[in-house]
Protein: Energy-coupling factor transport system permease protein
Amino acid sequence: MKSFSSFHPAVLFFYYVFVLFITMFTLNPVVLACSLIGSLLFFAMMTPLKTFCKDIGFYLLVFLLIAITNPLFSHNGETILFFMNDNPVTFEAIIYGVAIATMLVAIIFWSKSYSELVTADKFLYLFGKAVPKLALVVSMALRFIPLFKWQIKKVHQAQKTLGLYTSESVTDKMLSGMRVFNSMLTWSLENAIHQADAMKARGYGLKGRTNFSLFKVEARDRWMFGILVLLLILIVIGFHKGDFAFHYYPFISPFAIISANLIHYISIFLLMFFPCIMEAKENIQWRLLRSKMSVSPIRSKRKV
Structure:
């Protein structure tokens, strides 16, 4: 059950823009850690365990690669650990690499959950009237990758059924791959043209054209938007006061959470973990209802 996805598309879009903006433009370790853990937990709630483990294994390698690569190219910092090829490897450069890797992986997983929740129809609903052509192109681009993966698998299976992959020769595999790529290139161009022609035939983007939509603003959407605005105000105040300021060079700045900035860090925590809280709340309510249904079954008595 995806409780968070049931909110209005405008609320979802505002939330993801808000979260990505904060994640990209801060180097505070607490903010980045909350963003990474929140994105991982939410993505784990949305996807099967096998898919999550596969993705987390790949991006763990990406995380380690970025964290290790940064101190090899950046030699700033005052705490020298050792020398490699007469170049100093500093503690500050390693921590900065970990921070950049945390930011990148968090943005990737927030983007992956965004593509699952804010689908093409929701994106067209939000921007179809304001910028119809741009909205159509962006929605087609977002939908292109999963369609491309599905179609290339379909073409590969069809050609394998025809016996085109029986040889173990490297040349045969390369020719087969080129054949699949050529087929996919033709398919993608034709699909884009057909979709654009179909939308044009339906009058998409014409002035005065009415649109039917299943999305309606409800009371829970207003409450959600109000909570996000309140959190936004508190976090902006925290940035303005410098509570989230943090630097790594030439030395790592001292860090402390005190009563003066505690409310701002609580706002960050609630913002990053809000989807997880909503999903956990929905799952708990569903399990309670199921337990009540199983404990007190309806018994019917018949008189003979």
Confidence is low (pLDDT under 50) at residues 299-304. The radius of gyration is 25 Å. The beta strands are 80-84, 87-90.
